Predict the 3D structure of the following.
Amino acid sequence: MLKFVDIQQRNPEKESVKARSKNFTEIYSRFLKDKAEEQSARCSQCGIPFCQVHCPLQNNIPDWLKLTAEGRLEEAYEIASLTNNMPEVCGRICPQDRLCEGNCVIEKSGHGAVTIGAVEKYITDVAWEKGWVKNIHVKKEKNISIGIIGSGPTGLAAAEQLRIQGYQITIYDRYDRPGGLLIYGIPNFKLEKEIVIKRTQRLKNSGINFVMNCEIGSSIKFSELQEKHDAILIATGVYKAREANIPGNNLKNIFPAMEFLTASNKKGLGDKVEMFDNGTLNTEGKNVVVIGGGDTAMDCVRTSVRQNAKSVKCLYRRDRENMPGSAREVANAEEEGVDFVWLSNPKEFKGTSKIESLIVEKMKLSEPDESGRSKPIVQENSEYELKVDVIIKALGFDPEELPKLFCEDQLRLTKWGTIKTNFDTMETNIPGVYAAGDIIRGASLVVWAIKDGRDVAISIEKYLKKKSYQKIKAA
Ligand SMILES: Cc1cc2nc3c(=O)[nH]c(=O)nc-3n(C[C@H](O)[C@H](O)[C@H](O)COP(=O)(O)OP(=O)(O)OC[C@H]3O[C@@H](n4cnc5c(N)ncnc54)[C@H](O)[C@@H]3O)c2cc1C
Ligand code: SF4
């Protein structure tokens, strides 16, 4: 096992900065390698891979753990990438405690799960470093084109799978950079942006065409896309922020989570962001209250901590046990000094032009109803006032009104506003138009977006093959 004391024993005066950083990189990589091998060797190869069953991609975890333990990293990477288009992304940001690791047999026996996510991240990071991640090799080009709306993980995974089969792919996105929530939602401290940029660059290098700053509905009509492409995939995610409909909601310095996170991510990417640069969206030195209990709320509190906010509170109307966010994320936030105010609801935002304080009412939980969930109920006479400079609302997301946005009345929706699709094929009610990812599931996870992207690619390919066959038959 590597001893970190090595670093302290060296005389730094005698070494150049370059040599010192090289030594550190070598020592650190060796440490990661030792850790990955040690963790992989803990896998008992139990024969009933619950981890694999509970991974949405059914990753062949036991096999790549075994290969890693044996030091056969290139083979481990090959197996990991067979089922996942972005293993290094999932390794970093999957809520493993609810998926693979939470179901590890060793975890169940009380000895702590094998750190599957960390090993998946490690082997793919090494693969990038060693040049094992190659551009897509297309065996035979096909003169059939597919338009994908949205460059989030759903669109990217579908594009890769279809490009492998030789289709001509164009991805349209209203943002200036590809990646969807991977680039502008999830903060850099959880997912470094170079990782996302490397992935999208690889797709560009593999012949996938990206049309950025292009909003379907306003920049190009949906009907134009239908004329241009043989099939269409809608992978637009969900972006309509849920509102806190309480008095004072229009005061200054009350922001939706995505506005705050996008500004912070753009700043991190080196962009000029006026609202950040003039201090409006920068929480440094301010008292911040984030409202909500999901992973987006956790990203907002942890971003505020990194911006050196004076104090950061997270207000949630249920208790810790009933929080939708990952337990690991809550623990991380607490460790970083975030103050969780459980069973608390905002009642009124107060201030003259800017927010100055918040009236909070205490809640209690009812007995669980038929669905098994307890309802938060207001406690009588429990109100109190909290001083605050910035409020960030992280109350969840709903789908935008796509038929209206796309000027396409035909597109059928569910009662939740998500796109209605055939359960097996993900085809919408419009032939040749498919939908996948958050826009059909509601706000979900990256790993499910990748799974949907892969599944919908299979359906689109079947549709296109059938269409070509019918054309040949009719000719
Ligand atoms: C703050 C935050 C943190 C998260 N953290 C995690 C996490 O740690 N782990 C995890 O697994 N999941 C996390 N998620 C969830 C995860 O990011 C999403 O489930 C996933 O990105 C959904 O992928 P998608 O491709 O369906 O949509 P998105 O990633 O939302 O991509 C949709 C794309 O479509 C584009 N688009 C939309 N409408 C149009 C239009 N009309 N024309 C052109 N382009 C359009 C958008 O610009 C966007 O680029 C988080 C979500 C948020 C908001
Ligand atoms: S993709 Fe996510 S759930 Fe599956 S093995 Fe990797 S970290 Fe675990």
Observations:
- Confidence is low (pLDDT under 50) at residues 1-15.
- The two ends are 69 Å apart (CA to CA).
